[in-house]
Amino acid sequence: ISNAQKPAKASAGDVSMWCFLKNTIKKSFIGEIPPDSEMIFIALKAVVQSLNDKYSRILSYTEAEDYILDKASEDDDVEENEYRLTWKVINDSVVYIKIPIFSKYNDSAFQGVASYVLAKFRNYHKPSIIVDFRDCIGDYDHVTENMLARWLDMNTIFKREHTRQGEEESRITSVYVDRFIGWKTILLVNENTASAAEIFSGALQDYGLGELLGIETFGKDLVQSHFKFPNGDLLILTSAHWETPLRRSVAPGGLIPDYCIQLAPEEIREHFDFQLDKAIELCQEYQSNNKNRGK
């Protein structure tokens, strides 16, 4: 999401039409007339609704304050709830990381885990990592880029955006000495894998650095920008759509996994995770095959 921007000024003709309407209402309408500010806000909401875009909306200044506070407190909340990053080592050979949300807190946690496991497995033959993006939400571009820098080279394109002004390329700017080069990487995805998680997954899939396992992702290719009004009202407007580095669109339909594996039936899902089990199996096959080749 871009930083808040100022909306374009209305033309003299637009102002004249609004003044004519307002003055006519005040002069002729027999019922109770709301304050000018309320009428303007209602009119603005109607204009945004006419765009027929479920992601574009306008918030009053009080709603905008709550929205901004919610975004600002997201990283504080994630430290104490189910959205924090978790990880473990499976069978002494496969690193598993669950990322429920893209946030500053989870980025910091991920970098700490990455540094630790990269050092721990530095001399291990063909290590593997599973990154679980199932039900992953969040839209921090800089967090996506920072995490991807553990796989992608400096200046590598990880996303393309198309706006009314043309195409923009998002590139890796972070530099890490220790990276997951040579690691088998499997990304677990499902129908709720969206936004930043799709950008991340699409980039690694494009470059052949990660394989997707699960079911098709959500398929959200739209980008929202913020435009702040002088009185504090906030316009959230869809301003671009994005593609993967190789110009694949995720809408409609989402990213298609390299391995299409359904979840376990609901009645046994609490005890069995077919997708994770298959990912572990693929990692162990990869390690076993490469050991045999080395003999």
Describe how the helices and strands are arranged.
Layout: H1 12-28, H2 36-49, E1 57-59, H3 61-78, E2 86-90, E3 94-98, H4 104-120, E4 128-132, H5 141-148, E5 157-163, E6 166-171, E7 184-189, H6 196-206, E8 211-214, E9 222-228, E10 234-243, E11 259-260, H7 274-293
Low-pLDDT runs of 5+ residues are: none
Number of helical segments with 4 or more residues: 7
What proportion strand? 15-25%
- The termini sit apart by 51 Å
Mean pLDDT metric = 89
* Silhouette: elongated
Taking Cα atoms only, what radius of gyration do you get, to the nearest Å? 24 Å
Main sheet: which strands, in order across? 2-3-4-7-8-11
Q: Spell the H/E element sequence.
A: HHEHEEHEHEEEHEEEEH
The major β-sheet equals: 6 strands, mixed
Percent helix range: 25-40%
- Strands, count: 11
**Which structural class matches the secondary elements?**
alpha/beta
Plain-language structure description:
The chain is of the alpha/beta class. It has a 6-stranded mixed β-sheet with strand order 2-3-4-7-8-11, sandwiched between helices. Strands 1, 5, 6, 9 and 10 form a 5-stranded antiparallel β-sheet that branches. A hairpin with a 2-residue loop joins strand 5 and strand 6. The longest helix is centred in the last third of the chain and has 20 residues. The mean pLDDT is 89.
Briefly, what is this?
The protein has helices spanning 12-28, 36-49, 61-78, 104-120, 141-148, 196-206, 274-293; strands spanning 57-59, 86-90, 94-98, 128-132, 157-163, 166-171, 184-189, 211-214, 222-228, 234-243, 259-260. It is of the alpha/beta class and 295 residues long.
